[in-house]
Amino acid sequence: MILKQTGSRGFRAYTSKHLDELLKRAGLDDGERLRIRAVATVLPFRTNAYVVDDLIDWAAVPDDPIYRLVFPQADMLPADDVNRIADLLRGGASTAEVNAVAHEVRMRLNPHPAGQLDLNLPRIGHEPIPGMQHKYPETVLYFPKQGQTCHAYCTYCFRWAQFVGEPDLKMASDDVHQLTGYLKEHPEVTNVLFTGGDPMIMGEPVLSRYVEPLLGLEQLESIRIGTKSLAYWPQRYVTDPDADDTLRLFERVVESGRNLAFMAHFSHPREMESPMVEKAVRRILDTGAVIRTQAPLIRSINDDPATWQTMWRRQLSLGMVPYYMFVERDTGPQDYFAVPLARAYEIYRDAYSSVSGLCRTVRGPSMSATPGKVCVDGVAEIAGQRVFVLHLIQARDPELVGRPFFAKYDPRATWLTDLRPAFADRFPYEPAIPSARLSA
Description:
- The protein is α/β, with parallel strands linked by helices.
- The protein is 31% helix and 19% strand.
- The chain contains 15 helices and 15 strands.
- The chain has an 11-stranded mixed β-sheet. Strands 1-2 form a two-stranded antiparallel ribbon. Strands 3-4 form a two-stranded antiparallel sheet.
- Strand 6, helix 7 and strand 7 form a beta-alpha-beta unit.
- Helix 2 (30-42) packs across helix 5, helix 5 packs antiparallel against helix 6 and helix 12 (305-318) packs across helix 14.
């Protein structure tokens, strides 16, 4: 039974204007705080009182994983760029001057990886549809306009370009009729993923405006919601004024015959220690929704098997389904956070081998790259050559799904584009080399 919640939301956000004051808690000197503020002019910063007061161990800063998860670090960007912006801030440069340099740095950080602005852009006729992506035949991603922020931003976030205040980099739409119109023209689409930002930053009345129209489409089998809210603001489902109404919306989705997949992002076990999280998870599961968990493997935050083993076991005990270990994407401060693919596989293998079969629903390490989701299945010795064994979990070309392929072993490789094919002149997703070139 759902009981009506009352009272105010109580949510307090912190942004870059609060950054210097928050950093004083860490005992950082003036110079270090200035460099961190310089990084925050390029990459977005936002957190909230729950994360700051309940999740971060300030006695362990700067090594505390949750602190590193939400607070920029001075060495996240190239030193020359950081020093250049710090000098501008120190000298009292205008906002326009600082923003110009910050923009220049951003454009070198591959703000939209995997061709998402071009290759994934759906169209009606010749007209592109803003705020949508259609990468795989059966799946459409939708970016609701009011959901393009978060309760807190992760420092590693591959969607960072959504939050930096540059309209040309942002994906968003508030035209749900355009979404339903597109879906009717594409009956092959069977599931819609609401993403962001974080759709659960929206209140129930706004969220319902986007979700309810989809319930009349017979072709849809599932609705997914990608969210970090269980980690950063579990109150959304327990004590927020519209918590009960939100759960009733979830119930209506399930009652309509659709699977409601709640795609929860947990990057570290600490995010699941609060009793509030346990209450929130139970309330969501009671609606009939399924909670699947996912996160990227991030250097200095969760790059060891014990962390993942603990996460998966805790998720299972709460009734959630471990789903994906991702590889840090080739955007933003990738060099700072990336773990070599060889090491990523070792971490996954060691964690996977230490949990029960019920936890072994998780897949990875997986790269959401241009051709699709590429999984590193292992390292093997074949015909005297050391290779990565890979396959596509999902692909733009459905014919490639599940087909194994091989790449030459490279202990330094951190992304798909670092790899070279083994036993072939190209990867299966790459176009064939014309015969005239082969004979030249």
